[in-house]
Design goal:
mainly alpha; two-stranded antiparallel ribbon
Length: 379
């Protein structure tokens, strides 16, 4: 009874806000089916860690001493000291991706690069708003549209806002079908959205599929050595998929491993969602900056495609540039749907998928570039 009274009297208004945030994330996961594998454990975890004297967190107990909480332990082991959870997730993501559409039309890699503009624009904007460089860089990486990369970069840089950054990254990933159409329509006309792109797939040899992940890892390693763990595990997962001799392991990586790590990552990141750290004005600023990063990325990809069209005989539908973000395959589906809304006979899916997987590679390289540059600037 004493614990019950102490619990109620110790509950702050900030903790009540976190209960509401947790409930909202659970609602979005179940009712709206937005990234349920991640938003549901994050939402439940947000409630779990904000219960007064929660045993899920490390605390001092009278007569016993320090008692380690499971979420604090998972956060320390899986994210803080080794970054294992987000990195292991890349193996599963790599095993899911078919780089065939990109290999059959290699110029689509340019759209993946162009759509990372939002990262660096948002870093500059966050710094102008007064965030320290390590936090500005961590906020900017939300624009990668890649939750694991956002968590990894913010943790390695020791950002003070790991929780809000993770929530922003995954929430906006889930909202891509809402955010991207708005951003695309800002900078395109219906006539541009109706541009048809015939798809004549080129045959991609088995050798090309096997060499691609190895070559990308080598190039990324020399260009941005800090990206090797990110790109390397992504490409390792893809090599498992393409090698043809590890079928059961490929299936395990795509399903069991990816789902298990996503579940653990979601509830573990909640350890950084304690009310005293989360309910701040800076959290609202981070959510706004994260939205800006997604919009900047989308617009940059579209404008780059329009620039190419000035010098190209075969016109590119500008929306394909918007698919250069890392939100795979949601962004490609958005482009396909919008293309058919403009012209029911317009089929852009495979072009958009190629740009989308290019964005997956570009986003992890961008994360590596930031990890390579920012620590040196902080010295």
């Amino acid at each position: 009874m004493d614990f019950l009274i102490r619990g109620f009297t110790s509950t702050t208004w900030q903790q009540l806000v976190m209960y509401a945030i947790g409930a909202l994330l659970i609602y979005l996961a179940i009712a709206k089916k937005l990234e349920p594998a991640l938003l549901l454990p994050m939402g439940f975890g947000a409630i779990l860690v904000n219960i007064p004297f929660s045993g899920a967190l490390t605390q001092m107990m009278e007569g016993i001493g320090e008692v380690h909480g499971i979420l604090d332990w998972l956060f320390t082991v899986g994210i803080e000291t080794s970054e294992a959870f987000p990195l292991l997730l890349f193996i599963g993501i790599g095993a899911m991706i078919d780089f065939g559409p990109l290999l059959s039309n290699p110029k689509l890699i340019l759209f993946g690069a162009a759509a990372q503009f939002g990262i660096f624009a948002t870093i500059s904007l966050a710094a102008l708003l007064g965030f320290p460089l390590k936090d500005a860089a961590s906020i900017g990486i939300i624009g990668a549209a890649d939750g694991p990369t956002s968590i990894l970069v913010s943790q390695v840089l020791k950002s003070n806002y790991v929780g809000p950054i993770a929530v922003a990254a995954y929430s906006y990933m889930a909202l891509v079908p809402i955010i991207q159409p708005f951003a695309i329509k800002l900078v395109t006309t219906k006539k541009e959205r109706a541009i048809r792109m015939p798809y004549s797939p080129k045959s991609v040899s088995k050798m090309s599929r096997l060499l691609f992940p190895i070559i990308v890892t080598l190039i990324a390693g020399y260009v941005a050595p800090a990206s090797v763990s990110l790109v390397g595990l992504l490409m390792f997962g893809n090599l498992i998929r393409e090698c043809g001799v590890l079928g059961s392991l490929s299936d395990t990586a795509q399903n069991v491993l990816a789902n298990l790590i996503t579940l653990l990552l979601g509830i573990t990141i909640a350890a950084s969602m304690r009310a005293d750290r989360f309910v701040q004005v800076q959290t609202l600023m981070i959510m706004a900056l994260g939205l800006a990063a997604f919009v900047f990325d989308t617009i940059a990809g579209v404008l780059f495609a329009k620039l190419l069209n000035l010098f190209s005989k075969n016109k590119v539908n500008p929306m394909v540039g918007a698919a250069g973000i890392s939100a795979f395959p949601m962004s490609a589906r958005v482009v396909q749907r919008m293309g058919q809304e403009a012209d029911s006979q317009n089929h852009l899916l495979m072009h958009a998928v190629g740009a989308n997987v290019a964005g997956q590679i570009a986003s992890v390289i961008a994360g590596g570039v930031i990890l390579g540059l920012v620590p040196g600037m902080l010295v």
